[in-house]
Design brief:
This protein has 358 residues and is α/β, with parallel strands linked by helices. The chain has helices at 18-22, 39-47, 67-75, 90-100, 119-124, 192-197, 210-220, 246-263, 268-289, 292-297, 303-319, 321-332, 339-346, 351-356; strands at 26-32, 54-60, 79-83, 105-109, 113-115, 132-141, 148-150, 153-155, 161-163, 178-180, 187-191, 224-235.
């Protein structure tokens, strides 16, 4: 695959003609699971978009509530629904929708979001630039609309990632378009042809880390991600799994090792152990000081349970190691893993920020 030329993340992003936006079709992809409480607000906001050439596609992961019935009765053929027979995870659902989508751009969106009416039109003009493969909107908390959830993601040297500006007040620091590593999975835009060519999301991840997986595929194939501050989404953060649940702790740790082993150059994998130890030391400080992620988790969990989950995550990676290494060997043929070093220099997050910011 021919790689577009890399550019500085600090350069100004030029405006592009409005006719480009008007000619572009966007497929909005939503994966639901027991989303009856939030899905109508989400869809209503999409029907109010100023950009009208859109289709709304929804994959339901075998909800046990009446999510599907609500959508069918309320919106009819305005929403195309694919019903899964059982829950196969976020990536599986998104990949199936991407395959049947008709748009040039895919817009991934969580059901617990509300979009500003300019969400699409503000973002898609960046695709006029041939080396832009992804666009990250500004994601704010629904219950605190002056506070950032994500303005695109940053990456830590052991494969973990987090939203840039998470839990900070919105302001001038987040008011200009610039480059980031990749969008949050809760809301992001991707070129459909590239998404399919790169194989979509690794479906074995099931939950969490999916945005890192597809984001790295784009980046390591030479395509940039632009953050667009006037494309705004309001998000009910981790509403389906809980902000500090056992489920989240397990999948985040398991999947970041999958990503590390699949995408990082061999010489960076041993070094990642140092960064993981450093991160764990900050987690311990979080537990002692009462600040940050671990402190919040311990309000309902325990240190013993948390480290047990970590051991289970590592054990499961060992059980999957043959499959992970097979994927690594396949990926080597299509992407340039040496670009990871550039990503870690330009879009790096610190251990302190990734652990002590709630």
């Amino acid at each position: 695959m021919e790689m577009p030329q890399s550019r500085s993340p600090h350069r100004m992003v030029a405006a592009v003609p409005l006719y480009f936006e008007a000619q572009m079709r966007v497929s909005i992809l939503i994966v639901t699971f027991n989303s009856r409480e939030v899905i109508k607000e989400c869809i209503e906001s999409l029907l109010s978009q100023t950009h009208k050439d859109v289709e709304i596609l929804l994959y339901d992961n075998a909800s046990s509530d009446d999510t599907v019935e609500i959508i069918k009765s309320s919106y009819g053929n305005r929403v195309r629904i694919v019903e899964g027979r059982y829950n196969r995870g976020f990536g599986y659902g998104l990949n199936r929708l991407a395959e049947i989508a008709s748009g040039e751009v895919l817009a991934s969106l969580n059901p617990d979001t509300i979009t500003d009416k300019e969400w699409i039109s503000s973002a898609i003009s960046h695709f006029e630039q041939s080396d832009v493969g992804m666009v990250a909107p500004k994601i704010l908390f629904r219950d605190r609309p002056d506070t950032i959830d994500s303005t695109g993601h940053l990456i830590y040297p052991d494969g973990l990632n987090r939203g840039r500006g998470h839990n900070k007040k919105d302001g001038s620091a987040f008011s200009s378009p610039n480059e980031v590593a990749f969008p949050s999975g809760s809301a992001g835009f991707y070129r459909r042809d590239l998404y399919l060519k790169l194989g979509g999301i690794d479906e074995s991840l099931f939950l969490f880390g999916d945005d890192t997986d597809i984001g790295l595929k784009f980046q390591l194939s030479g395509y940039r991600c632009i953050y667009e501050p006037s494309s705004i989404v309001y998000h009910n953060y981790s509403s389906s799994t809980g902000r500090y649940s056992d489920l989240k702790a397990y999948f985040v740790e398991r999947n970041r090792i999958h990503i590390l082993l699949k995408y990082f150059p061999a010489h960076l994998i041993p070094l990642s152990i140092f960064h993981t130890i450093k991160r764990f030391l900050f987690h311990n400080y979080s537990a002692i000081s009462g600040r940050g992620n671990t402190a919040e988790y311990l309000k309902e969990g325990s240190v013993f349970r948390l480290y047990t989950l970590m051991l289970i995550a590592y054990s499961d990676v060992l059980l999957d190691i043959k499959d992970v290494m097979k994927k690594r060997n396949e990926i080597k043929k299509t992407i340039d893993k040496n670009r990871i070093g550039r990503l870690l220099r330009e879009f790096r997050i610190s251990a302190r920020e990734i652990t002590l910011t709630e």
